[in-house]
UniProtKB/TrEMBL annotation:
Protein name: Transposase
Domain Cas12f1-like TNB intervals: 318-384
Keyword Nucleotide-binding among record annotations: no
Pfam families: Cas12f1-like_TNB (PF07282), HTH_OrfB_IS605 (PF12323), OrfB_IS605 (PF01385)
All residue ranges annotated as the Transposase putative helix-turn-helix domain in the record: 1-43
Phylogenetic lineage: Bacteria, Bacillati, Actinomycetota, Actinomycetes, Streptosporangiales
Domain called Probable transposase IS891/IS1136/IS1341: residue spans: 181-287
Keyword terms of this UniProt record: DNA recombination, DNA-binding, Metal-binding, Transposition, Zinc
Record family assignment: In the C-terminal section; belongs to the transposase 35 family. In the N-terminal section; belongs to the transposase 2 family.
Highest taxon of the lineage: Bacteria
Length: 398
């Protein structure tokens, strides 16, 4: 199986400057290639493809030896493939009748990654293997950059990427042939219900807490954003204020990822079969649709409450949790089943009666038919588990 490993880089000041120049030159290459495609199609109606632009790289590098010529040829090809992928995704959306979203030019804050497609071609992981205490990655035009390797790399390194996050630099390794870490069977099965009060509630009645990292940091973020709003555009103080806001958001993101990793690992360790709702988080967090009143105004549509719910769902990290859970389940040899979430929170787990009135409050479920009372999330998790086991049995019988 394929797996990625991400490590913090510790570049010197000169190496950090070189990494910044590398990122900027690749951004300029991306934007120039995009403008080339647009101009040729606008003037001649001809579609320029990746092969055409890749063939021109040799001349671009020769004409700019101190700029584009400094960097790895293969990394520049990867940047052109990135643009080609954006165009293919655009045409796929057009054919599917979705909102197209034509590829855009990349500003300085919207291009943060450079990829080397092959270890050994313009880059080298563990470039000083005999160093007694540190790991290094060698990048053409940058040199040997120290890596804070906090865990062992498994499998064979295929691609190497450099990513900038705020003021930090990271190296991301994509590895093939990573051995699966199979866990011993437990014989346990569980249905899980995603929530805001608790991140996950299992059919066994266990609640995994939702730390609400964004809510905890809200006051500090608000103060940093107010400070940013007072700074004059283009000034050094504004850049520092922007960096403070970005650092707070980055910390929340790291905390959230750490939390969902631990929650997913706990579930995978304890259960052989895990059933979850097939949630479409993007659709669930769309803003409330305005409702015109016919007199030039709008009717109340609960937009403020919906906005708060959307913020809570995104703060909980449902999408990241389900993605990480699927990866950990695959690696551990666990079975993961997704079921339709419709009516799982309104159906009684005892008698099967489905009604909106069964959900008394956010936490209390009381069946209007049989009187069964339970925690609402636990009741939903039991229904999810039953639906998943039914799907599993049906697939086995087919």
């Amino acid at each position: 199986m394929r797996r990625s490993f991400k490590f913090l880089l510790r570049p010197t000041s000169k190496q950090a400057a070189a990494l910044t120049r590398c990122l900027e030159d690749h951004r300029e290459l991306y934007n120039a290639a995009l403008e080339h495609r647009r101009a040729v199609y606008r003037k001649a109606g001809v579609t320029v493809r990746y092969g055409d632009q890749s063939a021109e790289l040799k001349h671009i590098r020769a004409d700019d030896p101190d700029g584009q010529g400094r960097w790895s040829f293969s990394s520049q090809q990867a940047t052109l493939r990135r643009l080609d992928k954006a165009f293919r995704a655009f045409f796929d959306r057009v054919k599917a009748g979705r909102t197209p979203g034509f590829p855009r030019f990349k500003g300085r804050g919207w291009f943060d990654t450079v990829e080397w497609p092959k270890d050994g071609d313009g880059c080298r992981w563990d470039s000083q293997p005999h160093h007694p205490s540190a790991t290094y990655v060698r990048l053409q035009g940058v040199g040997h950059v120290q890596v804070h390797q906090h865990r062992r790399v498994l499998g064979t390194v295929k691609t190497i990427s450099i990513k900038r996050e705020g003021a930090r630099w990271f190296v991301v390794l994509s590895c093939d042939d990573v051995p699966a870490e199979r866990l011993p069977a437990t014989g346990a099965v569980a249905g899980i219900d995603m929530g805001v009060a608790s991140l996950v509630t299992t059919s066994d009645g266990e609640h995994l807490a939702n730390p609400r990292y964004l809510a905890v940091t809200a006051d500090r973020l608000a103060a940093a954003q107010r400070d940013l709003a007072r700074k004059k555009r283009g000034g050094k103080r504004r850049r520092k204020a922007v960096a403070r806001v970005a650092a707070l958001h980055a910390k929340v993101r790291r905390q959230r990822l750490d939390g969902v990793h631990k929650a997913a690992l706990a579930l995978v360790r304890d259960h052989d079969v895990i059933v979850h709702e097939a949630l479409k988080v993007t659709n669930m967090t769309k803003r409330a649709v305005p409702q015109p009143d016919g007199n030039g105004g709008y009717l109340p549509n609960g937009a403020a409450a919906k906005s708060g719910l959307n913020r809570s769902i995104l703060d909980a990290g449902w999408g990241a949790f389900l993605t990480i859970l699927s990866h950990k389940a695959e690696s551990a040899g666990r079975e993961l089943i997704a079921v339709n979430p419709a009516n799982t929170s309104r159906t009684c787990a005892e008698c099967g009666h489905c009604a909106k009135e069964n959900r008394v409050t956010q936490a209390v479920f009381r069946c209007t038919a049989c009187g069964h009372t339970a925690h609402a999330d636990v009741n939903a998790a039991i229904n999810i588990l039953r639906a998943g086991l039914a799907l599993r049995d049906a697939a086995g019988a087919a």
